[in-house]
Structure formats: structure tokens, C-alpha cells
Design goal:
Order of helices and strands: HEHEHEHEHEHHEHEHHH
Largest sheet: 5 strands, parallel
Bound molecules: zinc ion
CATH topology: TIM Barrel
Length: 300
């Protein structure tokens, strides 16, 4: 076959849509397995999450666990082991979820070590770490010190590329239930899904504009009540809107997650930090106060 310039272009065009519509995403769940609430015990929440991920064929996710939270330690460790046996990756999210800026380097690193010694072989290899509140230190000296400490202890920090406020939905439904209100979950669900999807689309846009490619995204979610209640619908809606859910094992290999921006705006994930580096500013995809008011209206 004679290869004309036109046929080469036609051939290249075949790949264009695949590149433009990449939209790959891996799921991560922080704060596992959590406390007993008005919706779930830690065990019920863990079992429900494992079952929903399995029945929706979701590839391995990363569970960033806090083994010191939730009460009875052997019971909490059992939940973390179940998530691991369910085929998921277990990362260290510290033992008791302290804020680095507040507790300082010594306390914080002891807490990370405590989580590691408690979780033992349940902690996946390579060792993955995520900062509570994404707080990597707002002073560069502390930030550099902790980055070095993590490397010296063979940890990789895994930020997310997609940010949102999923915990507020859980806080609000528990608050409403505690006040004896009838929670309308069906009314709340579309708000939850729209909020998360808007964050995902925003992350994709930021990546295309600032990295020049669509990375394997990592979304921040939490093992909290509303997220676990709505996760199956969220997964379906992500797929419906063209997202492919990929294994977190593959996603962490995207070069994005090895970048170390110089500024200390780590609160909203790695893309926010990159945008800040490039443009000097960053706007999150949501307004916390407005979201909170919107939820209060639905739950009144
Ligand atoms: Zn957390």
C-alpha cells in the first residue's frame, strides 16, 4: 500500500478521539474505617463499601487508613485487613489523623510510625502515604523536612488530582438524623453526584490547561457515610459521563504524582498546587459555605 500524506493523517486521526476522551480515574478513600455513626458501625460501613465496589467491578482503590481512630483497636485493624483482602491497597494516613502544622514534625512522624507498626503487613508495598487534610506543612522548612523524612522511610506521598468536599454530606446527614429529622436521601443523592462530578470535570480541565495532557486522575473520597451510601450511583454516573475507572496501582505511576511543587498550597491536591505555581492563584471548584447552605436547605 502506498502511504500518502493524507492516509497518514487519516491514520493519526483515528487516535485523536482516544487521546481527547481519556478521562481515566482511580478512586481513593481516606479516614478508613471511621467511627460508629447513626448510619453505620465501622464494620457495616467497611462491608458495604467492599460489597459495592465489588458488585460494580471497580478496580483496586487505595484505602488511606487511620488505625488509631474508631475505638477498639483489634476490631478496627480487622476492618482494614478486610479491605486489603477485598483486593484493595492500604496506605498510611497516620494513626490518629493529626494536622502536621498543628502538632509539628516529631509528634506527626511518631504517629505515622505508630500506624505502620499497627497495620504491619496489611500496609501495601510500595508504602503509600497521604497527609490528613492534605496538610504537607505551610512553612517550606517543615514541608521539606517531612518530604525528606517520608523518602528516608520509603514512603510515597499520594495526593489527589481531583478535590471535593464529600465529608460534608456525611456530617450533614448525621447532624439531621441526630435532630430527629427525616433525611431525604433520594433528594440528596443527585446533589452529591453533581458535586463530585463537577470536581472531576474541573480537575480534567485544569490538567489539560496546565499539564497539557489528561493524566490518570486520582480522586479524593472518604470512607464516610454519604460516600458509601452513594458510591454505586457515583460509579455508574462517572462511567455514564465517559470516565473509565482504572486501578489505583496504575494511576500512581502517572508522573503527575511525583511532582513536588515549591509553593505550600497543598490543601486542594496536586493540580491546585501546579496551577498556583504557574499562575500565582487557584480557585477550588466549589464554595464550602454555599455548599453547606444548600445542604441545610435540602435537609431542613
Ligand atoms: Zn483524612
Amino acid at each position: 500500500m502506498k502511504l500518502t500524506l493524507l492516509s497518514v493523517f487519516a491514520f493519526l486521526n483515528l487516535f485523536k478521539p482516544t487521546i481527547a476522551l481519556a478521562k481515566e480515574i482511580a478512586l481513593t478513600f481516606d479516614d478508613a474505617p471511621g467511627e460508629t455513626t447513626l448510619h453505620f458501625t465501622p464494620e457495616q460501613r467497611t462491608d458495604t463499601l467492599i460489597q459495592k465496589l465489588k458488585s460494580n467491578n471497580v478496580p483496586p482503590v487505595i484505602i488511606f487508613a487511620n488505625p488509631c481512630n474508631g475505638g477498639d483497636q483489634p476490631y478496627i485493624l480487622k476492618q482494614i485487613r478486610k479491605l486489603s483482602e477485598g483486593g484493595h491497597i492500604i496506605g498510611n494516613h497516620t494513626c490518629s489523623h493529626p494536622r502536621l502544622d498543628k502538632v509539628g514534625f516529631e509528634y506527626f512522624t511518631q504517629d505515622v510510625k505508630k500506624a505502620e507498626s499497627l497495620m504491619g503487613p496489611t500496609l501495601s508495598f510500595p508504602k503509600l502515604f497521604r497527609f490528613p487534610f492534605f496538610n504537607e506543612g505551610t512553612k517550606s522548612k517543615l514541608r521539606d523536612q517531612i518530604r525528606q523524612w517520608l523518602k528516608d522511610h520509603s514512603y510515597r506521598n499520594i495526593p489527589s488530582s481531583i478535590d471535593n468536599e464529600d465529608p460534608i454530606f456525611s456530617a450533614k446527614i448525621n447532624e439531621a438524623k441526630a435532630k430527629g429529622k427525616n433525611v431525604n436521601y433520594e433528594k440528596l443523592k443527585p446533589l452529591f453526584i453533581e458535586h463530585i462530578l463537577a470536581g472531576a470535570e474541573y480537575g480534567e480541565r485544569l490538567a489539560l490547561e496546565n499539564l497539557g495532557y489528561s493524566p490518570k486522575h486520582i480522586i479524593l473520597l472518604h470512607q464516610k457515610d454519604a460516600t458509601v451510601l452513594f458510591i454505586d450511583d457515583l460509579v455508574k454516573e462517572l462511567r455514564q459521563r465517559g470516565w473509565t475507572i482504572v486501578s489505583a496501582v496504575d494511576a500512581i505511576e502517572d508522573p503527575l504524582y511525583r511532582m513536588e511543587p515549591k509553593n505550600t498550597l497543598s490543601t486542594f491536591g496536586i493540580l491546585a498546587q501546579i496551577v498556583k505555581e504557574k499562575t500565582g492563584e487557584f480557585q477550588p471548584s466549589y464554595d464550602f459555605v454555599r455548599l453547606s447552605k444548600e445542604l441545610d436547605k435540602v435537609l431542613k
